[in-house]
Amino acid sequence: MDQLNITEAGSTTLSEPDRYAVVGNPVAHSKSPLIHHAFAQQCAQNIQYERRLAPLDGFKSAIADLIEHGYKGVNITVPFKLEAFALATTLSDRARAAGAVNTLIFNGGEIYGDNTDGAGLVRDIEHNLRVAIAGKRILLIGAGGAAEGVLQPLLAATPAVLVISNRSVDKAINMAKKAATASSAALDVRACAFAELDGQTFDIVINATSTGLSDSELPLPATIFANASLAYDMMYGRETAFMAFARSHGAQVSDGFGMLVEQAAEAFYLWRGVRPETQAVMQALRQLSAA
């Protein structure tokens, strides 16, 4: 597709569109309506997609209201991914492994929960950035929900070793143990404190912490970046301290914008049964942001 009209307008066809939404608090900043309407235009899908602000203490009732009004599904953003996990009547394997849900599908009385974050990250790294994960040494920084959400898809891409590092090393150890127990394959998953990273090098370093929100720096040794390494921050829309640090030590750097679009494409595929091409959408969104 040569050109996309990126807007938040819904379908203009005469038939009633299928309705979807992104639910969060806050949610006004979400680019999901732009992304999904671009996907719908590209794939000739008749949908309406909007933002829905749910009260912090009213997620369950907000979802019930959407179901009552005929919505087909929703994306879930902070802080409701754990509540969405608990609300789902059926879970995908990757949602169960992550312990969190970012995509719901409504089908009669059933609520199907999935997690597309990890699939979006892996596809962005391998397809868009053209960096193979198989056989590589990976460092995953953080042991919270964002890290949990991408761990199993990263391991499914068969890295040589995956090290989880976190300020609270106990959380990283528990996460590594759970990952090894959940898989039938022989996986080299380890955990360590930041101080133990000195002397180790990695081909791919992924920041799954929220430090980018506050511009705080992580106590990482500069030696973690191997030659031609990729430093990936799951935050998007700004140059984080982690990205600046990695760039200054020779790493290829990327933010999580591609992951945002790719995880949305995976959700769109779950809902509509057609997989959109993401490159044109990413290019159009970047041009819109720069305007």
Describe this structure in words.
The chain has 291 residues and is an alpha/beta fold. The chain has two domains: 18-115 and 259-290, Rossmann fold (3-Layer(aba) Sandwich), CATH 3.40.50; 118-255, 3-Layer(aba) Sandwich (Rossmann fold), CATH 3.40.50. Helix content is 37%, strand content 21%. It is built from ten helices and twelve strands. The strands form two sheets. It has a six-stranded mixed sheet with strand order 2-1-3-5-6-4, sandwiched between helices. A six-stranded parallel sheet has the order 9-8-7-10-11-12, with helices on both faces. Helix 1 (32-43) packs across helix 9, helix 5 (117-128) crosses helix 6 (145-156) and helix 5 crosses helix 9. The radius of gyration is 19 Å and the shape is globular.
CATH-scheme architecture of the largest domain: 3-Layer(aba) Sandwich
The CATH superfamily of the largest domain is known as NAD(P)-binding Rossmann-like Domain
> What's the mean pLDDT score?
92
Query: What structural class do you assign from the helix and strand content?
Result: alpha/beta
Beta-strand proportion: 15-25%
Number of domains: 2
**CATH top level class name of the largest domain:** Alpha Beta
Rg, Cα atoms, Å = 19 Å
What global shape is seen? Answer: globular
Helix content: 25-40%
- Pick out the low-confidence regions: none
The SSE string, one letter per element, is EHEHEHEHEEHEHEHEEEHEHH
Number of helices, counting only DSSP H or I runs of 4 residues or more: 10
Give the CATH topology of the largest domain. Rossmann fold
User: How far is the first residue's CA from the last residue's CA?
Assistant: 21 Å
